[in-house]
Structure formats: C-alpha cells, structure tokens
Amino acid sequence: MMMMNYITFVFGLAILSSADGSEIVIQAEDMIGDVSEVNHRQHASGYKAVHLYTGNILQTELCFISGTKFTVNEIEYSNDGPSDMISVSLDKVVIDEFRTVALSDGGLGWDMFKPHQSMVSTITEGHHMLTIKVIQSDQHGVEIDYIKVSVNYSQTIDSLSCKSFCFEDATYPHFTPSVSPSAGYARAVQRSVPTKCAEEDNINIPVFYESSSSLSFVVTASLPKYNSFQNNRGADWTNCQMYDAFWKYKNITLNSEHSLHTKSSSLRIYNVSPGLLGTRKVILIEVDFELEGPSTGSTDSEIGAHFNLQNIRYDGSLSFQFQYYNRYNIWSPKQDKTVKISESSIKFVTPDFTFREGKGNKIRIEVYGDPNSNGNITIGDIFMFKRPMRNDQSTTLYKDGATVIEGVDVDMWWRINETMCATVKGVPTTFSNIDYLRIYRRVPWTVNGFSQVFVLYQDANIRLLPTTPHGLDWIPFGSSVIIGQTDPLSNRPYSPISHLDIDPDSLHMTIFFTDSNVVSINMQTTMTETQLHVTATHLVKDASLHPFFTFRSMFVANDNNDVDHIVADGGVPMKIGGDWNDLRGHYFAFYRQCISKHNTQSPDISLLIKS
C-alpha cells in the first residue's frame, strides 16, 4: 500500500499555535544527522547544543497537511573562533546561506548564543526534509542550539513531525451507484465548526433530497479503509472545557457588603439587621445564575443540584438557612444547617426540574452568627454542581442464540420527559420509557460472545458497527447518523421517536416519529459491515428544506478524528471540515484516509440513495 507520509521520530518538538498559524521549535540534539558531540551549555535551550564541523549536517522531517508559507524564523547558534558558513535547505534546495559572527573569547563564546533570521518559502502539502549543513568551519567548528520555523495554519505536533500516517488509496474513487432512473439527487451541506476537543461532535452534515417526498436509501458502517492494528477507544478530554461546577467562588469574606461575578453568575453579600431572640443575623448571600438547557442539547437546567460551602472558618457556631427560587417563580421552604467549631463544610440540595433554562435562577443563604462571638466569617469555597447520575438501567426485550435486544433508561435524558415505546414481534409486552435501544449479534468465532452493532436513541441518533473483528474483544463506535427529518440549523439536531416495532428474526424495524413520519428499516450485519436499508414512503416535511439524514462526527486533526474526508459519487475527496459548501450525488462516503489515535477501529459510514 502506497503511503503519502512516512515516519521519522523527532523527539523534543515543541509547538506554539495561534489563529495565525503554528511556530515550531526543533531542538538540534533531537535532529538526525552527523552529530559530532552534544555539549552541556548553561544558556542553551534545554541546556544542550550540538557541535558541528565542515560537512556535518542536521536533518528533520516535516509533514504539512496543506500548502503553506514556510518560514525559518530563527537558527540559534554559538561560535568561538572565526566565522563559519552554514546553509539551510528544504528538499535539497538551498533557501538560505549565512555566516556566523566571528568571536574569540577563550572558549566562553560557546555559551553566548546568537539568532540568525532566515528565509521564507512556499511549500506544498506532504512530506519535506529540512537540512542544516556546515559548508565551512574553522578547526573549532560551530554549535547549533535550536531551529524555529513556522507555517501559516495550525497543525498538531504528531502531524508536523510525520507521525500521522495517511494513505492515498483509502478512498471511494470509482464507485458507481446502482440507482433507479427516477432517483433524485441528494445534497450534503457543510454545517461543521472547528473544535480542539475530541469528545465534541463538531462535524454536522445534513443531507437534503431534491425529488419526491418518498425515498429509499442504504446506510453502511464498514471497517476502516486504512490498515491499522491499533484499537484505541478511550475518551480523550484534552483541550475539552470541563466543568467540575456550574459556578464557584473562593475565599469569601462575610464581614462587608460586596459582589463577585463569574461568566454565568453573580454573588452578592448583604449586611442585614439583627434577628430575633438575641441571635444576630450576620449576613445574606444571594447568587443569581444562568443555566444551559434542552434548546442547546443540555440537561443543566433540568437536573438536581448540590450547593457546597466548604472550609467555613469562625470562632463560634453558625446557623444557615438555604432557599432556592424555582422555575415557577416561588421561593422554596428553607433548609437549615448548623456549623460548629469542629465542622467546616455543609451541603444543600435541590430536586430535578427546579431551575429554568437561561437567566432568572436564584439561591439565597441566610447566615446567623453566635451572639457571643464578634469574629469574622470566611468561606473557602461556595459552588454548585450537578447531582450524581445513576447508571443506565437496561431491560432485555428479546434474546435468542443469535440476537439480543435491550431497552435502556437514562437517568437524565436530554429530551426531557420524552421516551419511546417498543413492541417486539412474538413478545406480548409493550416496553415503555426507553431512551435508547441497542442490538447485539452473535460473534461466530467465540464460544458465547455477542457484539453490539446497533444503537437507536429516542432523538433518532443512530450508531452502527460491523461484527467485532476476529482477535478483538470489541471496537468503538465513532460517527453517528440521524435518520429522520430535523432542523438543519439546530445545535443538536433531533427527530423524536414515539414508538418502534421490531421483528427480531428478520431485524426489520418500523419507526414512528412524533412528527408523523414513518420509516421502515431492514438491518443486515456481516463480518465487515452493517447495513440499514431504509424506506420512507411519505415524508411529512419538504425534504429539500428538512434533511432526511444527518451525519454527525468529530474532527480535531488528521491524526485525531472519527472522520476526515467526504466524497460524493466517487468524485474528488473533500476534507470533512474543509471550505466546501455542498456536494450533490447519489452516494456519499464519510471516511478516514489518516490513521486516527481516537477510536482507531471505528467504522467508515456511507449513504446510498436508491430511489
């Protein structure tokens, strides 16, 4: 198999990325070539510099995902003796030559590093070799500390250092779909956004139909086109915006009136008049905050919350009364807590469906101090976070020697108060309160093993897998599809399902949507792929405005994605998050040309319009 990129390990590569591009610092001691010696230098980057003489070279391989303006920003060197001649070349073409500054300082000059600013060159996508060569030196030679280069776009370290494998023949270039002469064209539209988080679905491609209101199509999930024996499948939260709390305030002092703010909340502290029965009401704490909700695909406004006050410091006893302002504009009854000198933390809770999406959420905490103490009250942390989620609860709907079907109840499903029902042929019970359904198929080369091949969520999101390949215990899901008409501008597209009928012998399903659409699906699973043969006899909405199929996935970089290319009718492959508007055709393939460190064995997905 012909490879576009090959690998050379270049350790010590550092990269600084910005919206304008990437600046790469390559340590000389980590390059390959004729290295006479590596010396310890106090003022060198990394405390090391490479000593070179006439004819010696240093090389490093660089791989670029697109054509770029390439700049050698700086070559850091030191010299103690006469001037030396150094050349810089890219792919054997000299782009710069320069002389070092002569210096004679009895050997001390080796720790006095100087920068040389070099040349700008335009290079093409692919693999390139950067070479530093000493054309002529005196008997003492010259030392190189590092080389700093830049490109005019962002790229990951692994990709820049040629550790990302891409295959030219991992394409769908010659496929000619067999379709009905009356089949209309479909149109895939780019709705993707950039992301740096591998756990965020940033690839969003709705597919519209430009013919009649009925259609049939085939969705196929197949093993990746590229060859890899890696089976990476763990979550990667690098560069993800993780929240351990909705909001958090630290080091709060309650001895004066003041306010504090976060991006989505405001905390105010008020001094109030003394209370009754000789107890002094010390302070009132109020917090106003915003929460995301179902309109953005979140359950933050729906799930119950915990409010913690930690590291409370005071030289007496304190009483706290907590209230929350609910979505019906009513203040709750007060929750009481008492803190003694030996205690330092308390927690208050609110039930599910207390707060509202957006603004208008409030809590207040009344603090009563010990009348025998005049000391200050401080709280180390005040914060709000979600209540713990319980594990998904599964129910077996059907099981025989070849197939297992399960219905699953999610603790806090994002389509609040919406579930679907399922009827299984031959089973008298109708199963309700299902948030998603999963199907397992027998793995032939195991004693009694099953692999999950199909998941259908109540919002019509579908995940597919072929049978687990021989020698592996399981492979991960990756990209997903939505079968059902959605709002193409939604942040989290969905098409809610009310009911489905399942024939476990033929794996035939009839799906009833809440918008009155009805779709029938026949599932076929083999060793290399799983197919869904879908028929929609009548679409209730205009399919040219409301897509019947939506592809959802993730792309961070060439070596970190669940999909990196799309192609229509065997045409020119397009980068999945690239600068294209729409593609027309009867056949669309969503696949990877480059081996990904994320969900390495997750499947390619294709869509074939039949009629």
How would you portray this structure in words?
- With 611 residues, the chain is mostly beta strands.
- The protein has three domains: 13-160, Galactose-binding domain-like (Jelly Rolls); 186-236 and 391-609, no CATH class; 255-376, Immunoglobulin-like.
- The protein is 1% helix and 47% strand.
- The chain is built from one helix and 46 strands.
- The strands form seven sheets. It has an eleven-stranded mixed β-sheet with strand order 30-29-35-36-37-38-16-46-45-42-43, with no helix packed on it. Strands 27-28-31-32-33-34-39-15-14-44 form a ten-stranded antiparallel β-sheet, with no helix packed on it. Strands 1, 2, 4, 5, 7, 10, 11 and 13 form an eight-stranded antiparallel β-sheet that branches.
- It is flat, with a radius of gyration of 32 Å.
- It starts with 12 loop residues before the first strand and ends with a strand.
- Mean pLDDT is 89; it is low at 1-13 and 15-19.
Provide a short characterization of the protein structure.
The chain has three domains: 13-160, Galactose-binding domain-like (Jelly Rolls); 186-236 and 391-609, no CATH class; 255-376, Sandwich (Immunoglobulin-like), CATH 2.60.40. The protein is built from one helix and 46 strands. It is flat and about 90 Å long.
